[in-house]
Automatic annotation (TrEMBL):
Signal peptide: none annotated. Its EC number is 6.3.4.4. The lineage of its organism: Bacteria, Pseudomonadati, Pseudomonadota, Alphaproteobacteria, Sphingomonadales. Keywords: Cytoplasm, GTP-binding, Ligase, Magnesium, Metal-binding, Nucleotide-binding, Purine biosynthesis. This is Adenylosuccinate synthetase. Mg(2+) binds at D13, G40. It comes from Sphingobium olei. Substrate binds at T298, V299, T300, G301, R302, K303, R304. GTP binds at residues 12-18, 40-42, 304, 330-332, 412-414. Plays an important role in the de novo pathway of purine nucleotide biosynthesis. Catalyzes the first committed step in the biosynthesis of AMP from IMP. Transmembrane segments: none annotated. It holds the Pfam family Adenylsucc_synt.
Length: 429
């Protein structure tokens, strides 16, 4: 059977939650492979709305869900999110939810440092969620992280705590903060360990066995390709690799397991936080897109910046993530526009670019070159077949396919999971 890897093809918030939920009903395993609880997926299942930020979306359907080693895990948030979903009637046990033994932990002082840095950055603010994601990844790379498996060996943690506190105490002193209270930290870890450890498994083994048995694995990405630490709009990016290739390193399955790569993209563009956004509309158009699309972050509640569809950026995402097909979401938000614009290139000084240059100053200066296409007055909301779409909406979709060098695999026309036009089944062999 084919596996599917779902990634965001813009700056995140593309509606991955609905698509993953839609696919997870036919998956045998759903795996998160990067990020932390800075990601946010909203699932609408019947009359219930589930807001997830750490747990894989498959858990709502009862599908075996795993948190891979590429994720940084806040154990206290994990406990609270599990409790919240159980309160909504979702069954969560070690039988249907697993955490990789090698996930680095997000600790309280990571959150402190995230906020202290952001507050001190002035005009250089990145717009982090202040949840400690970046500092936790730094400790992982610095080989001083406390990992999930360490919760079973807290009596042996002394040398690692020495490394950790030597680094962080110096940073904290620079901000006028007291050293880490090691005794308090050990007490907190001891308290939470009993809740976390029953879920801990060698996730790489679970996934390799599932693959050998021909089971369908759905890899669920967080954020979007344009927030990738290597391929995104640096430094206004997240702290992990968000591209599809990370499904391999972030779970231990290997590069052959990614399968069909489904890139999620809105029919327009949004971004949360700071950073370049060439097609941003700080006017009535942007306001209309935001209001109709209910553009507020699932995790932070921050208002999203809105603008026209940027085919240049999505084409880059398709290339660096090896996207097989695009899921185009929120087409219905464009209903009623007299005309629509698509960015087909950038002008920076006297030079035209068909890609976004790497340097932040060039990105900030990039002026979009637009192609205009007629809009439609009919509604696309709730459409479930091509026959339900206005001819001009189909023309818009076809033009996007041409510009991004990638076919549209499915179209989403509302938050409801059934309001989906399927062109090609990502799970097909």
């Amino acid at each position: 059977m084919a596996n599917v890897t779902v990634i965001g093809a813009q700056w995140g918030d593309e509606g991955k939650g609905k698509i993953v939920d839609w696919l997870s009903e036919r998956a045998d395993v759903v795996a998160r492979f990067q990020g932390g609880h800075n990601a946010g997926h909203t699932l609408v299942v019947g009359e219930k709305v589930y807001k997830l930020s750490l747990l894989p979306s498959g858990i709502v359907r009862g599908t075996l869900s795993v948190i891979g080693n590429g994720v940084v895990l806040d154990p206290w948030h994990f406990r609270d999110e599990v409790a919240k979903l159980k309160g909504q009637g979702v069954e969560i046990t070690p039988d249907n939810l697993q955490i990789a033994e090698t996930c680095p932990l997000i600790l309280p002082f990571h959150r402190d440092l995230d906020g202290l840095r952001e507050d001190a950055s002035g005009a250089g603010k990145i717009g982090t969620t202040r949840r400690g994601i970046g500092p936790a990844y730094e400790d992982k790379v610095g080989r001083r992280a406390i990992r999930v498996c360490d919760l079973a060996h807290l009596d042996d943690l002394g040398p690692q705590l020495d490394r950790l506190t030597a680094h962080h105490d110096a940073l904290r002193a620079g901000f006028g903060e007291p050293p880490i209270d090691r005794e308090a930290l050990m007490a907190e870890l001891t308290d939470i360990a009993g809740f976390i450890l029953p879920f801990v498994k060698p996730v790489w083994l679970t996934l390799n066995k599932a693959k050998a048995q021909g089971k369908r694995i759905l890899f669920e990405g967080a954020q979007g390709t344009l927030l990738d630490i290597d391929h995104g709009t640096y430094p206004f990016v997240t702290s992990s690799n968000t591209v599809a290739g990370t499904a391999a390193s972030g779970t231990g399955l290997g590069p052959s397991g990614a399968g069909f790569v489904l890139g999620i993209t809105k029919a327009y563009t949004t971004r949360v936080g700071s950073g370049p956004f060439p097609t941003e509309q700080e006017n009535e158009i942007g306001q209309r897109l935001g209001e109709r699309g209910h553009e507020f972050g699932t995790v932070t509640g921050r208002k999203r910046r809105c603008g026209w569809f940027d085919a240049v950026l999505v084409r880059q995402s398709v290339a660096v993530s090896g996207v097989t097909g695009i899921a185009l979401t929120k087409l219905d938000v464009l209903d009623g526009f007299d005309e629509l614009k698509i960015c087909v290139g950038y002008q920076i000084g006297d030079t035209r670019y068909d890609y976004l240059p790497a340097h932040a100053q060039d990105q900030a200066k990039a002026q979009p070159i637009y192609e205009t296409i007629g809009g439609w007055s009919e509604t696309t909301a709730g459409a479930r077949s091509w026959a339900d779409l206005p001819a001009q909406a189909i023309k818009y979709i076809r033009r996007i396919e041409e510009l991004i060098d990638c076919p549209v695999t499915l179209v989403s026309t509302s938050p409801e999971r059934e309001d989906t036009i399927l062109v090609r089944d990502p799970f097909a062999d």
